[in-house]
Amino acid sequence: MLKTILRRTGKFAAIAAAGLVMSAQAAEPIKIGSFLSVTGPASFLGDPELKTLEMYVEKINEEGGVLGRQLELIHYDDVGNASNARNFASRLIRSDRVDIIVGGSTTGATMAAVPLVEQAKIPFISLAGAVVITTPVKEWVFKTPQSDRMAAERILTDMKDRGITKIGLISGTGGFGSSGRTQTLEVAEKMGIEVLADVTYSGSDTDMTAQLTNIRNTDGVEAVLNFGFGQGPAIVTRNYDQLGMELPFYQSHGVASDSFLELAGDSAEGLRLPASPLLVPDSLPDDDPQKKVVQDYKAEYEARWDSKVSTFGAYAYDGLMLAVQAIEAAGSTDKEAVREALENIQGYVGVTGVFNMSPEDHNGLDADSFRILEVQNGEWKLIN
Predict the structure, then answer these.
(1) Would you say 223 and 156 are in contact if contact means Cβ atoms under 8 Å apart?
(2) pLDDT mean across residues, the chain
(3) Are residues 193 and 313 located together in one domain of the fold?
């Protein structure tokens, strides 16, 4: 009898101990890792991204967390440096032991981290735009911005709708501008648009008059497209105006923010670019599925930070919400289960667009998720 009691006591003790372990695991926070360009030349990307992640991690926690667990944001500032990004990604994976990574403000930073992510088998949602990030598909890598190829398709489609078939192209030599140039040249050939002039500028250039003069002096050019981000596009825009160039002028989605309008000033009048509807939420029809999501994000961000939203912060919002949705669908933080859940997200209505992921598409957006905006009287206006 005594042995039976002892056996039962031991069994109950083991069950109780297991329950305590499970309870302790359930109480542990879900770790969201991030490396962002919060300072440095790409701070206009990383600053609103970090503010967005901080704000919504806090909000989600106040509402009870995810799977009954709080979220913990662990982030580092890579200052726009790819080597830093790689080191921080390694730290997030090996030392911080995060459950998922939402970050990578730039293409260079993202691609520096990709080999580590793939080797460690940890879900990674990038906030950078180049097509190379998810094409070809990488098992553990996803992203929220539309690709530069989609931007090129949207811009060149708008040009064709205006009867434009011969253009001049100016682009930055950094990762984003270089990839955008490649995609534009490929899409232009496919669409029957001739690129008559093709010039570039570096990130350290402070005047692009010579490159623009080259385009202006090229016979037959009917419009100009600049593919770049950071200070460069604002300089190009001011130089374009100073030269008195009156051809239709396009920028890429790399400058889709109110801060660009502040930098470019009156010189930006009339230019067009592809962007998410975040910059013109009230212009969306009431039956647009994105309208409420976009309006709510804009209102919450601006109330919290007393500054205007940008499409870059929206990439972080979508990245975090996709991560949360995948973890909830997986029912745990098991990395393979979360990865599989991410890969099968359908119909998620975000600020950037409506996401439909698949094993063949880890971005889940198409070119139509871009809206064409034009600067009119110093403000963004929805064209189509």
Answers:
(1) no
(2) 93
(3) no
DSSP 84-134: HHHHHHHHHHHTS--SEEEE-SSHHHHHHHHHHHHHHT--EEE----GGGT
- 35 within a domain of the structure (yes/no): yes
* Closest C-alpha to 155, from 74, 34, 274, 42: 274
Q: Is the same domain home to 49 and 101?
A: yes
Measured CA distances, 1 to 10, 12, 111 (Å): 14, 17, 66
Would you state the pLDDT for residue 15? 47
**350 backbone dihedrals φ, ψ, rounded to 5°:** -110, -175
Report in angstroms the alpha-carbon separations of 369 from 34, 206, 253, 322, 384.
26, 33, 12, 17, 11
* E strand map for the chain: 30-36, 71-77, 100-103, 124-126, 141-143, 166-172, 194-201, 223-227, 249-251, 272-275, 346-349, 354-356, 371-376, 379-382
The dihedrals phi and psi of 209, each to the nearest 5 degrees, come to -60, -40
Whether residue 278 sits in one domain with residue 158? yes
Is residue 268 domain-shared with residue 334, that is, in the same domain? no
Do residues 161 and 60 share a domain? no
> Which residues lie below 8 Å from residue 294, measured CB to CB, with a gap of 6+?
276, 277, 278, 281, 284, 351
pLDDT of residue 22: 46
Number of CB atoms found within 10 A of residue 235's CB:
21
What does the pLDDT read at residue 2? 43
pLDDT digits (tens, 9 = 90+) for 311-324: 999 999 999 999 99
Q: What phi and psi, each to the nearest 5 degrees, are found at residue 287?
A: -90, 5
Q: Which domain holds residue 74?
A: 29-147+290-368
Same domain, 160 and 253: yes
Name which of 344, 346, 324 is nearest 333 in CA terms: 324
Q: How confident is the model at residue 5, as a pLDDT? A: 44
Which residues in the chain come in under a pLDDT of 70? Answer: 1-26
Our count of domains for the chain comes to 2
Q: Are 125 and 110 in contact (CB under 8 A)?
A: no
Pairing of β 166-172 and β 141-143? unpaired
Pair (194, 94) in one structural domain: no
Collapse the DSSP code of 344 into the 3-class scheme (helix H, G, I; strand E, B; otherwise coil) and give the result: coil
Q: Which residues pair with 372 in a beta bridge?
A: 274
The verdict on residue 59 lying in a domain is yes
* 228 and 341 inside one domain: no
User: Per the structure block, which two tokens stand in for 71?
Assistant: 């979220």
Predicted pLDDT at 20: 44
